[in-house]
């Protein structure tokens, strides 16, 4: 596996609202917030077939993504083949192969392992089918045309800023708070799956924010595990994170010291970490650590409300779907899709033109403004 260690970026995204047009607003919230739905090619139009490959239904965010992409494409008259591969790489390859065989006009792909699609995407290229990488960069192939995602380095910074905010060290935009406590605070780090390009961007962004405070001794990583290879979580699995957190608590924190903060790059990982803490005698309140997250999954929004998790990063799946759909439609109309970054996402073969969206830190106080007012979750879903 080739690992991409490149740093992220600081792109201006002032064209964002131009691209994320009415389509995003038209997406029904039912599509966003309902549970698993059937996949397949029902309910489409006659503009042709578009294949949409998603990694897994085990995470609610990908269900929301799949539903949003499907409904937006159908609104535009396309038929959609939406498939989930349950994090099984050969299954995803064969699903994409099937889409090509069925005559898909374009493919929108959120990969499981971004390095494993080279051969199937050669088949797509041979059949002149354009490919859009959805949220996760597809690596090691020239046959990926565009990339729709978020500013992933910034997402990582935001995860760190949320941790620093919880410790009273910084504002949510990363600005240091004057007269902040000197610490030291014990911090442990978690990263995502090494086969997902995003994991590097998130981790590098977070470490960019943490490093000066580690250097000053305000933050202490007691385990000394600060390399992404040491802290990665295969397939972003909560159980794996839980097991590693249990090991850390046993090895580093059985001497009476407590862990004050934990960098988690994804809500499912945060939930595993929370289970480990609860199993080791920690309870919410004094001495409970600050924990970050990502994706604003409903169980984690509830956990933020109850104080188990400090924050998450909200990435609006409706907007991401809208960007990817606009890219596909532009390509099929012979137009050039709008992009706002042509530098940062080198996939090992080429730099993939990208459109990067903005993300928002969510903490308890702004749940209503960010998640309820935008219609992403209802009050009843959060409090239910
Ligand atoms: C990443 C994605 C994150 C999170 C994670 C686990 O690729 O950018 O938002 O969803 O996968 O699913």
From TrEMBL:
Taxonomy, superkingdom: Bacteria
Record's keyword terms, sorted: Signal, Sugar transport, Transport
Compartments in which it is found: Cell envelope
PROSITE patterns, per the entry: PROKAR_LIPOPROTEIN (PS51257)
Boundaries of every Periplasmic binding protein domain copy: 50-335
Residues making up the signal peptide according to the UniProt record: 1-33
Keyword Signal belongs to the record: yes
One Pfam family this sequence matches: Peripla_BP_4
InterPro entries, A to Z: Bact_Solute-Bind_Prot2, ChvE-like, Peripla_BP_I, SBP_2_dom
Transmembrane intervals: none
CDD domains associated with the record: PBP1_ChvE (cd19994)
Organism expressing this protein natively: Cryobacterium levicorallinum
Protein name, as recorded: Multiple sugar transport system substrate-binding protein
